[in-house]
Structure formats: C-alpha cells, structure tokens
C-alpha cells in the first residue's frame, strides 16, 4: 500500500475511531520534505499512543536535530490505540509515518525509544503492524535498520532478539555517526552484515547479534561471548561532554495530549547517589545548561509553539547551581504573561517553597515532594536522607501559604525494610495532615503515592531481591488501615506491574522468547493498568521453561555475572557493590559533588573531558582525585 | 480592543480535529503570530474568542467563521496593522489545513455569530456511486412527502422545513454532487447527513463540505 492509498483508506474509516486527530499528522512544526532530495529516511517511533509519544523529549530532540540535515528526513510514528489497530489490521493498512503516510517498511532506519520496560510488547506490536519481521534474524537485506535507545536499553538483553542496533547512553552524537555509516554503506550496496559491523565499531553502540551468551547450570550467566575478534567486550555508554542547545522546534499537537507543554532539560545527571535510582547512576556526569541558553530557549519555544506551559526538567532541580537567579529571571520576564512554569524534582526545603511561589501560575494548585522513606533506618539504606523536621517545616510553610494539596511519594519493599519502617510512613503522614488541618482545616488534602521498589540494573541494589508479594500486601494493608482518615488519598503501584518490572528490568537474553510469546498471547500496552495480561506472561514463562522468581526474588551473589555487565555506564561495578554493602550497614554517603568517592565516571570519560576543557562536570580534575579504594 | 470576523478554511488533517480542540489551535496560532488576544475579565481570564456553529468531524469547511478580539495596545509598535498583514501573519503560523480567506473589522458590540447565522450551504459529494439523475429522482420523491420525520436524541422532528434549497451537478463535475442550503439557527439546525440518511444512501464514501454560512443582514 502506498501513501496515497493509505490516505484514501483513512478517509473511509477514521471517523469510527476515538480521537482520529492522532492519526493524521499536519501539526504545526511537523516537517515535510521532498522525498526526491532525501538520501536517508528515518521514522522516529514511540511505542505507545500519540498522546504519550508527542511530549517525549528524547524524540523531540532527534526530530529537530535530524531534520536540520539536508539529505535526511525524520518523520514520526506512534502506536495506534486498539480500535485503530483493529481497523488497520482488517484493512491490511501498514503502520505509516504521520508526515507523509509512508509505510514504515519503506524507511531506511526506524529509531525506537524504549524509556521503560513495559513498552517491550508494544515494540513487537509496532514492528508487526509495520509488516516488518519481528525477529532481527528474519529481516533480510531490504528491511529498515531497527535502532533502539532510551533508559530501558541500559539492559538491552531482553529485547536483543528484535533490535539490530542499541544505542547506549546519549544519542545526540551517535545518531549522526550511524547515519553517516548508513549512507556510505547504501551507496556501496554491500550486505547488511557489513553495515552492522561498521556500526559496531562506534562508541556507545551494541549489536546483540554479534554476541552469544553462555550460562551456568544454575541458570545464571557465565559470560557473553563476542562472536568476532574485533567486536568490543564491553560497550561503554556514549555521552556528550557539553549539552547541546535544546531543540528549537517542537511539534505542536492538534489534540490534547498528556502534557501540553514545552520541556527543557536544564541539567543532566545527578550527584545525590540515591541507591534505588537508576537514572541517578546511568546519566552521570552532571552537566548543566547555561542560564542564558535556558532563558533564550524558553523564549524561542514559547514563540514557536504557542504553548502556555513550560517544564524545566532535571533529576534534581535544586542542585542546578543558578536555580535562584533562573527563577527570579523567569519571574521578571513572564510574571505578566500567562505562562505556567513547572519545576519538578525540587529538594524538600523551605527554599523550594519560595521558588515555587515565584513561579506560581494561575493554575498551580499542588505541591509534590518525594521523601521516599520515613524511618531513619531506611533513609540510610537508600541514601536519601531528609530529616523529619525539615520535611514538616516545609509542609508547614506550604499549607500556611495557602496551598491546599500536598502530594508525597514513598516507596515500600526496600531492602531491610520491616513493618516498623512502614509504620513510620503512616505516622509521618498523620503529622503532615495534622499540620494541614491546623492551617486550613478540612480543605487540606494529602495525596500519597506509594510505589513498590524494583531493583534496577546499574544501581547498588542490582544484587537485591524484590520483596515478596505477600509482604507487600501486608505493608499496603498497614498503610491503608492507618491512613483511612479524611483528607488522605492513596494510590498504589499495582503488584502485577511491579512484578513485571522486576523480571523485565533484570532479564537476560532468554526473555526475548518470553516477550515474543506473551505478545503472541495478547500482551500489549502493559503499562496501562487495566491492560496488563498476567496470565499471558505466566504462560509465556512456563512454555519457555523459565521461572519469573529466578529474576524477581533471588538475592544475587557478590560475584554473579549480570546480563547487563557488558554495558559500561562508566560507574564501576566495584563501587556499586561497595554502595550496596554500605546500604546494608545503614551508612550514608554524602552528595558526591562535595567529595568524590571515585565512582569511575571521571576516569571512564577522561578523554572526552580533556577534549572539552570548558565542560563543567562537578567531578574533581583527575590529578587531584583521591580514591578510597 | 478590536473585534475581527474571520472566514477560514478547515480542511486536510484539520477535518479530524474537534470544535473544542480547534479553539485551542486558534489561541496557539495567535500566540505564535504574536497578535495579542484580548482576555475576559475576572479571576480566570480566558482569551475572547467566539466561534460559529461547529462543523461535524471529518467534513471540510470552506467558509467557517470565528470572531476574535485583539488587544492591539500590546502589539509591537513597529508592526503595521492591516487586514492583509494580519491574515498573512496568522496563516504563516497556522497548522496545515487552517487558512484565513477573509478578515474584517466589525463593531465590538455587534451580536454573536451564532445569533445572526441563518443558514449554511453544504456540498455533498457522492463520487460515482450514484448518477445525478438517480439522485434527483430520489430527492424529488423524498420532497413529495408532506413531512420528513427524523429523530434526534430520541426526539422526533421534521427535516423538511430545514431544507431551504438544493441543486445538482455542474457541467464540469465528474462525480455526483448535491449542493444544499439548510437552516442553521439555534432552534433549527439542519444536517445534510440526515438528508442523505433519509434518502437511504449508505455509501462507503461520501464527502461533506460546508461551503459558507448565510448571515442575517445586520
């Protein structure tokens, strides 16, 4: 089916599906080029619906960046919702790009972002809807090159059977390297193997087909063997020494999506070292964007999009060194304009309340804080220590300044946690709501988000087991009973989905066949609570003679080889282990910008750093570093 | 404050965008064009815009209308305000399928579009699924009945008085096309797809377009 036929078909049935505006393109700032002048055509894919995909910052960056190249055209595609999928399958319409309605199999490259594991089955569905063979090995010469990146690919193994090329780490530079190699390869019409081989020589790229795993009798990994002599043993993630300027052009959706706003990353990386947080370890080193650049790009993107909301993103906004002057500048410029500025991930202190008060727009109603733990013990375990006084003082200030709603995030199921630690959460929440009642009476509202801890690769907790479901239920019940008082509302993470995240995030290569089978049995949209198909997954595990508990509830030995050990984030496994041991001993580790403890990032990227002497990383210069091991 | 009455096209991908989403698109388009909208007074100020009758999803609009209030006090003083400048600037900042065809200054306190709209003219394209003669015979038969009772939200109403005029193909048309003028008032809203349904024509492919509104001469 060609673009014209697809367009004619769409006109015949689009009115039957919900929100047809998802499927027609035509957005302001979407890019149209003349295909005759294009050497390389790329589809950027988000494996969930349009509403979630359009706000994705990663794809917005690539879309803007790639379309600035004259001979490249990057288009977008998203997964259709079920009603649309049914119509498309019935009419044999392949998944197409929104801009030109070109079927995906006519692209040179398909770049898929996989930020979280619950999109795995959606990736399979996306390929299938595009009428492209799902397994990498079944895609002969004529098919597009399938590239994947995003946070979940820091453990690429579960998806290794489906993806040709994984981009590990930051994609801004490596994507153009890949395109350059692709263009040369295509002009020489060489076999696909040559293309993959060339790409495998790049930093930050992993070609799973070039490796083969070997397992011990107990099912743990013995090693991952490279199949060719010149293929890297370890794949070091790619980083950019200095953050490039944020994208200039954002696609402005024609329909309401989950976040109708412009997102600007003010800082990448984090020095706090919270032991549960994968992002905190895999996005090091810390790099800030200059203040002037942020102000300028807010101005440009507001003018370019007409959006009335801006989100300034980072893992820990308060750590942005010029946060105060950024906020007061924004206040001066935008306080008369009807612009909402949101600044998530602020530290829990009264300064943050001042900051948010300055940014407070007309629709600003609530305040979100993430203490994660309440008992002293667990605060030490996870290395996120906010004193109770500090929290309560902040809460007092929030309610006394007239805010009515506070949202607090906590985590349960952490290593070493007992019912006493969970009781501490309940006690703390009661104190919080009492402060609210003191100031504003019954209007005060505490919304609690209680999530269940999932041990993640590349964190100190990668050795830990996930908590037993019965214990989780018991802990949830404790909170439910203790906090059933007016003014407190609790949302939980669903236990099935927690389980799913636990096995898929630390999965190995054998899980590819589990994912494939689960998809065949109807699993898709796993991130959507009511769509999670537990039975399909359990059956898929059984048929592949694998036990989900092997991945979820097993404490790993110190020397176990992990399926993601060949992915080198720059932070050493030794230091992660050390952190795990400190965590079991209940020892805190200070913010590492106040004292380097040699995580490894600095040495790993010493060469890159040397090339850009202006790069400020909050790491000591190599010569003066004092290591404790 | 200045009030402009804008006639525009809503075609292409924009056909699939709802009335409500379209109002947000107008606001974002004007923000990008840096033409300051006037805001309502009150605790939650919202831009002053007032659209004409909604167009059904999937239909082309060739003469849609909307009233917008501009606050020229806040515009860049170097910008020369002319009708052409305004509509060019809006068109440059509009998404694919939204196009201004006319822009006209009107008195600030004149009545709302929906109040003065009398009728709307539609074009129904049947492609080649029926011949013009067949269609004419069917339409005449339908019109010969004393009333055409239809039901809307479970309430019966007579469609016949809502149909004001109709005509068939022009010579150059390859497809079978009916043009129909129907009442478009709050109390009497005629829908061309109801006429097609009353004719019993259930084709896969029928393209509806609203060509223009007819306003009461004020």
End-to-end Cα distance of chain A, whole Å, is 62 Å
Runs of chain A in which pLDDT lies below 50 for 5 or more consecutive residues are: 624-629
Question: What would you say the CATH architecture of the largest domain in chain B is?
Answer: 2-Layer Sandwich
CATH superfamily of the largest domain in chain B: Pseudouridine synthase I, catalytic domain, N-terminal subdomain
* The CATH topology of the largest domain in chain B: Alpha-Beta Plaits
Q: Helical segment tally of chain B?
A: 5
CATH architecture annotation of the domain at 3-236 in chain A: 3-Layer(aba) Sandwich
Structural category of chain A = alpha/beta
Q: Note the beta-strand portion of chain B.
A: 25-35%
Order of helices and strands of chain B: EHEEHEHEHEEEEEHE
Unreliable stretches covering 5 or more consecutive residues of chain B: none
Largest sheet of chain A: 6 strands, mixed
Q: Based on DSSP secondary structure assignment, what is the total number of beta strands of chain B?
A: 11
Tell me the β content of chain A: 5-15%
CATH class descriptor of the domain at 3-236 in chain A: Alpha Beta
Oligomer kind: heterodimer
- Estimate the helix proportion of chain B, in percent: 10-25%
The CATH C-level name of the largest domain in chain B is: Alpha Beta
Beta-strand segment tally of chain A: 19
Number of distinct helices of chain A: 22
Report the CATH superfamily of the domain at 3-236 in chain A.
Cobalamin-binding domain
Write up what this structure looks like:
Chain B: Residues 3-181 form the DUF2344 domain. Chain B: It comes from Flexilinea flocculi. In chain A, strands 2-1-3-4-5-6 form a six-stranded mixed sheet. By secondary structure, chain A is an alpha/beta fold. Chain A contains 22 helices and 19 strands. In chain A, helix 14 (419-440) runs parallel beside helix 15 (469-482). In chain B, 28% of the residues are buried. Chain B folds into two domains: 2-110, Alpha-Beta Plaits, CATH 3.30.70.580; 115-215, Alpha-Beta Plaits (2-Layer Sandwich). By secondary structure, chain B is an alpha+beta fold. The interface between A and B is medium-sized, with 26 and 29 residues.
């Amino acid at each position: 089916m060609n673009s014209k036929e697809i367009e004619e078909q769409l006109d015949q049935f689009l009115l039957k599906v919900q929100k047809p505006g998802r499927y027609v393109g035509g957005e302001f700032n979407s890019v149209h080029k003349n295909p005759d002048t294009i050497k390389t055509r790329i589809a950027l894919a988000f494996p969930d619906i349009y509403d979630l995909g359009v706000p994705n910052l990663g794809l917005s960056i690539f879309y803007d960046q790639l379309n600035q190249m004259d001979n490249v055209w990057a288009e977008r595609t998203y997964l259709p919702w079920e009603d649309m999928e049914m119509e498309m399958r019935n009419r044999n319409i392949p998944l197409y790009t929104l801009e030109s309605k070109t079927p995906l199999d006519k692209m040179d490259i398909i770049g898929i972002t996989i930020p979280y594991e619950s999109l795995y089955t959606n990736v399979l569905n996306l390929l299938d809807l595009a009428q492209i063979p799902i397994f990498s090995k079944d895609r002969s010469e004529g098919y597009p090159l399938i590239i994947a990146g995003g946070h979940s690919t820091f453990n690429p193994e579960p998806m290794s059977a489906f993806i040709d090329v994984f981009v590990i780490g930051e994609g801004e530079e490596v994507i153009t390297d890949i395109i350059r190699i692709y263009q040369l390869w295509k002009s020489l019409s060489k076999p696909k193997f040559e293309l993959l081989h060339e790409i495998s020589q790049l930093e930050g790229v992993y070609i799973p087909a070039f490796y083969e795993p070997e397992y011990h009798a107990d099912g743990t990994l013995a090693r991952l063997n490279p199949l060719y002599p010149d293929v890297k043993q370890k794949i070091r993630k790619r980083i950019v020494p200095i953050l490039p300027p944020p994208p200039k052009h954002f696609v402005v959706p024609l329909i309401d999506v989950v976040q109708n706003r412009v997102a600007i990353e003010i800082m990448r990386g984090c020095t706090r070292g919270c032991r549960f947080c994968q992002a905190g370890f895999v996005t090091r080193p810390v790099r800030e964007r200059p203040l002037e650049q942020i102000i300028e790009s807010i101005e440009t993107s507001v003018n370019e999009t007409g959006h009335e909301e801006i989100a300034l993103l980072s893992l820990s906004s308060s750590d942005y060194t010029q946060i105060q002057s950024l906020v007061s500048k924004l206040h001066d410029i935008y306080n008369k304009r009807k612009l909402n500025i949101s600044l998530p991930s602020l530290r829990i202190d009264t300064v943050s309340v001042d900051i948010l008060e300055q940014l407070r727009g007309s629709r600003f109603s609530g305040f979100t804080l993430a203490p994660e733990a309440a008992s002293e013990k667990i605060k030490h375990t996870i290395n996120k220590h906010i004193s109770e006084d500090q929290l309560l003082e902040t809460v007092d200030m929030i309610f006394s300044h007239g805010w009515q709603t506070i949202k607090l995030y906590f985590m349960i199921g952490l290593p070493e946690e007992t019912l006493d630690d969970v009781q501490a959460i309940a006690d703390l929440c009661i104190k919080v709501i009492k402060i609210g009642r003191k100031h504003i009476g019954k209007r005060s509202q505490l919304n609690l988000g209680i999530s269940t801890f999932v041990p993640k690769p590349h964190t100190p907790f990668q050795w830990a087991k996930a908590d037993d479901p019965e214990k989780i239920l018991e802990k949830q019940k404790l909170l439910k009973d203790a906090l059933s008082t007016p003014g407190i509302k609790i949302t939980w993470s669903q236990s099935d989905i927690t389980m799913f995240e636990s096995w898929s995030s630390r999965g190995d290569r054998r899980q590819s066949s589990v994912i494939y089978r689960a998809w065949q049995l109807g699993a898709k949209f796993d991130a959507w609570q009511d769509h999670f198909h537990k039975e399909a997954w359990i059956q898929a595990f059984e048929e592949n003679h694998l036990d989900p508990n092997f991945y979820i509830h097993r404490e790993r030995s110190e020397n176990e080889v992990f399926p993601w050990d060949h992915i080198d984030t720059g932070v050493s496994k030794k230091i992660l282990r050390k952190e795990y041991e400190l965590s079991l001993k209940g020892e805190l580790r200070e913010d590492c910008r106040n004292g380097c403890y040699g995580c490894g990032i600095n040495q790993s990227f010493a060469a890159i750093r040397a090339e850009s002497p202006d790069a400020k990383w909050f790491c000591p210069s190599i010569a003066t570093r004092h290591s404790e091991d | 404050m200045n009030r402009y009455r804008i006639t525009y096209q809503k075609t292409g991908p924009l056909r699939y965008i709802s009335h409500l989403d379209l109002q947000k698109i107008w606001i974002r388009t004007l923000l990008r064009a840096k033409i300051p909208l006037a805001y309502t007074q009150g605790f939650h100020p919202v831009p002053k815009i007032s659209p004409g009758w909604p167009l059904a999803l999937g239909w082309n609009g060739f003469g849609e209308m909307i009233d917008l209030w501009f606050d020229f006090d806040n515009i860049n003083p170097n910008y020369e305000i002319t009708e052409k400048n305004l509509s060019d600037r809006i068109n440059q900042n509009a998404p694919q399928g939204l196009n201004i065809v006319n822009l006209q200054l009107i008195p600030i306190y004149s009545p709302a579009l929906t109040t003065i709209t009398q009728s709307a003219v539609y074009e129904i394209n049947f492609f080649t699924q029926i011949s013009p003669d067949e269609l004419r015979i069917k339409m005449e038969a339908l019109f010969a009945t004393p009333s055409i009772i239809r039901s809307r939200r479970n309430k019966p109403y007579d469609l016949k008085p809502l149909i004001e005029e109709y005509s068939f193909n022009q010579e150059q048309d390859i497809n079978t096309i009916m043009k129909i003028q129907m009442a478009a008032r709050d109390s009497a809203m005629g829908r061309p797809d109801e006429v097609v349904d009353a004719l019993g024509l259930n084709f896969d492919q029928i393209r509806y377009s609203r060509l223009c509104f007819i306003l009461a001469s004020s």
